[in-house]
Amino acid sequence: MTTVNAPKINEYKEATRVERVGAQSHIRGLGLDGDLEPRNISQGMVGQKKARKAAGIILNTIRAGKIAGRSILIAGQPGTGKTAIAMGIAKALGNDIPFTAMAGSEIFSLQMSKTESLTQAFRRSIGVRIKEETEIVEGEVVEIEIDKSATSGAKTGKITLKTTEMETIYDLGAKMIESITKEKISSGDVITIDKVSGRISKLGRSFAKASEFDALGPQTRHVQCPEGEIEKRKEVVHTVTLHEIDVINSRQKGFLDLFSGDTGEIDPEIRDQIDSKVAEWKEEGKADIVPGVLFIDEVHMLDIECFSFLNRALESDKAPIVILATNRGITNIRGTTYKGPHGLPIDLLDRCLIIQTEPYNEAEIRSILEIRCEEEDVEMTEEAKEVLTKIGVDTTLRYSIQLITTANLVAQKRKSNEVDVEDVRRVYSMFIDHVRSTQYLRDHQAEYMFDEYQKQTQKMQVE
Amino acid sequence: MQSQNNQYLQFVGKPHISAVIAGGRRRVNYTFEDKSELVEEYDINNHELITRKWKRVSNIKESQWVYEVGEAPIDQQSELKLSNTNPIFVRKDTPQHFQYRVRNLTYPEDVYQMEVDEKTQEIVIRTTNKKYYKRFSIPDMRRANLKLEQGKVTHVYKNNTLIVSYPKPDQILEREYQIRQEFDKFNKKKPKEGDLECVQQ
After folding, report:
1. Testing the interface with A: which of B10, B34, B63, B79 to mutate, by most A Cβ within 10 A?
2. Least confidently predicted of A67-81, B69-83, B112-126
3. Interface of chain A toward chain B, CB-CB under 8 angstroms
4. This prediction's pTM
5. Which of A362, A410, A415, B4 has the smallest number of Cβ neighbours within 10 A?
6. Closest alpha carbon to A25 in A104, A88, A69, A67
């Protein structure tokens, strides 16, 4: 029996599963201050001030919600923070505003036509904010008990919640247990659980338990123990996307389809019906339309038909803000024989505001590496950091980031907690970046198979 | 049946009413203009109200039944459900009183306190040991625009069950009497399982 509210070190690790660290998971926002000036290193973002400031202005436009259908293009060399800025915008907007991220090639699906994929992507980015009464459970956690069955491995659990007037015990299902361990809920936390959606929010820690621990996270809020009943009906403002409403209304068991992901094509008649219904609700004051953000990465992968569709879709007054990103220069526009800047036709470019990102300088690379080290939980000596920074400058930023965790593993093999220069040197020689790789190919081309295609492979270097 | 229509002012317009004998009980279905529904189940013989449940139609998500009288079936698959060690709150009226029972209460008799919150028109059950707390209103009184009166709430505690009673005012007793008359008329036709009864609006 594992009681989560009094953990020992090894038990604690089991209760808080290690989350996989993504390439962009260190980004928490755009790192701007009150006047929209970018701080040099903030919320995971480093340098790139002009682009971040521009993104901040876009952010405010989005928040104001008054202007629909703008598009922004973030263009720059590989590894200059384009996706990071889009992530920053997403995090800064928060959960209320729909943010859909996709890559250009996702449009090409065998199950859906290109226009349907794009239409769905657009409708996923338009939210409808509705006030609804939901049942919630709110209280201070007294105790959490989670048992793992020896035979089936299934987890069962109970949670005891209290308010100033009463106490209640709840049985927990598997998904609830997962959420509880993920959010690191423990005794003394004041939480709210939405009974319908199953979402748990931590409101803070109870004042009564404030004296127990001296060291708490920087964001710990202290709140009063809730009063009255544990189960309440609260009016909650709920944001659903137009796409979700489409799906629910297009199938019998539409509600379940949302989770299975298999939506297929949706009848345009249904979409029209939904549109008029939503317009009605807006008139009656029951709902608000919230245009969100659609982020299309690698937009040079779309073809001319998609671009024409985009042009038209952007003209609607319900259109979301579209953020495009690409690292291509003057390239072929797919579906035509013409070339265009960034692989986009000029009429689409005309509708875009273009933000340029620039390659990072040495000091910035150093800061980014330090942030990533922290994010990936790796300790590194100063000298190792110097060497890694130099590698980042000589090769690419991404390559040096990838060396962080690999160097850490090598360091652990020699039983050290800190990564040192020798570890970095070892992984540098084990894993080759693309510059050295192409150089190697040039020198040893003759030894590779099919080397009659020598000339063509040299062309591929120009990315 | 006609006199009852005023009670359901919460919902839109006049309901379409139908009654059927199902599961040994008389089930009355009210369907309102906005597609919301009300279902009441009465005991065939003594016309006691066993369950009353409402369903509002929501565009965004699946609608669910809200039980006003009687117990909702417990969703075994639910991720968050009340442990069976908790007290269970149920309404089951008697002919003269609105009655609420809280089962599974193991605390001594003197911890329970009742009062009427006049501002919110709710009855409040408190415990001095801060273990159980419940606020509830009586929808029938609300619908009839009648006020709850302090001092009329009585309670009894026995067999680990707390029974809270509030006497039904004359207006409501009158209506219930009329309903029983109607049902008696139906019963004279000796209804069987599955019979549909036509109800005058």
Report:
1. B79
2. B69-83
3. 130, 132, 137, 158, 162-176, 193, 195-196, 198, 228-229, 238, 240, 245, 248, 255, 277
4. 0.62
5. A415
6. A88
